[in-house]
Automatic annotation (TrEMBL):
It comes from Paenibacillus taihuensis. This is Phospholipase/carboxylesterase. Residues 23-211 form the Phospholipase/carboxylesterase/thioesterase domain. GO terms for molecular function: hydrolase activity. The keyword Transmembrane does not apply.
C-alpha cells in the first residue's frame, strides 16, 4: 500500500462494529478551502458513514486547492490530469486501509471538488456508488478527450445555485443535460442561492445519500 498523495481527515461512526464495513463519503472541498470546512455538510451522516475529508495538496492563501486555473472555468490541464490520477489511486488506498464497503463509495464535492467528483464518476464508472456535486461543471476537455466509462449505475445528486455568481445557473442546466442520457439515476436540483450550499440543499442530499446507501 503506497502512501497517499493527500492529507486527509477521517471520522468514524461513534459506535462502530469492528466486524462491519461501512459506506464512505470522500469529501472534496472548494478552491482555497480545506477538508474540515466540508465536515459540517456531512456531519448528519457521521453515524452511518465513514467520512474521509481529502485536502488539496496545493496551498492557496490560508487554504488549499487540488489544481490551479488559467482562468475561471479553465483548469491547468496538466495539474487537473494529475489530480484525477492521484485521486483514483487514493480512493482504493483508503478503501484498503479503513473498514470501507467498496460497493458503497461516494464522493461529495463543492465547486472545485464538484468538478473533480463528476470527472471521477466519468473516469471510474461503477467503482463509485454515487456522487454529490454541488455547484460545479464538467470541463470540456474531459468530455471530449478523456477515456470515459459508463455511469449508468452511478447515482448522482447534482445541484446548483440559481444566483451563482461564479458558475452561472446555465452551467448547472448544461451539466444536467449532459448527464441525463448517461444515467437513469440522476437527481438535479436548483436552489435560490449564490455559490454556496443552503440548509435545504444539505437536507436534500443528506436524505438522498441515506436512501441510496440503504442506511435509513
Amino acid at each position: 500500500m503506497t502512501s497517499p498523495a493527500y492529507e486527509h481527515d477521517i471520522r468514524f461512526p461513534a459506535n462502530m462494529d469492528p466486524n462491519k464495513r461501512y459506506p464512505v463519503i470522500f469529501t472534496l472541498h472548494g478552491k482555497g478551502s480545506n477538508e474540515r470546512n466540508m465536515f459540517g455538510l456531512v456531519e448528519p451522516l457521521a453515524d452511518e458513514f465513514i467520512i474521509v475529508g481529502i485536502r488539496g495538496n496545493l496551498t492557496l492563501g490560508a487554504g488549499f486547492q487540488y489544481y490551479e486555473l488559467h482562468s475561471l472555468g479553465n483548469p491547468v490541464r496538466l495539474m487537473f490530469n494529475q489530480a484525477i490520477q492521484q485521486l483514483q489511486r487514493f480512493i482504493p488506498y483508503a478503501t484498503e486501509k479503513y473498514p470501507i464497503d467498496a460497493a458503497r463509495r461516494y464522493l461529495l464535492g463543492f465547486s472545485q471538488g464538484a468538478i473533480l467528483s463528476m470527472t471521477l464518476a466519468l473516469t471510474m464508472g461503477d467503482q463509485l456508488k454515487g456522487i454529490v456535486a454541488l455547484n460545479g461543471y464538467v470541463p470540456e476537455f474531459v468530455k471530449a478527450e478523456y477515456p470515459l466509462k459508463s455511469v449508468q449505475d452511478v447515482s448522482m445528486f447534482i445541484s446548483h445555485g440559481e444566483f451563482d455568481g461564479v458558475f452561472p445557473v446555465r452551467i448547472g442546466h448544461e451539466t444536467a443535460k449532459y448527464f441525463e442520457p448517461l444515467t437513469s439515476k440522476l437527481t438535479f436540483k436548483l436552489y435560490p442561492i449564490d455559490h454556496a450550499v443552503s440548509e435545504e440543499n444539505q437536507q436534500d442530499f443528506v436524505h438522498w445519500l441515506k436512501k441510496d446507501a440503504a442506511v435509513e
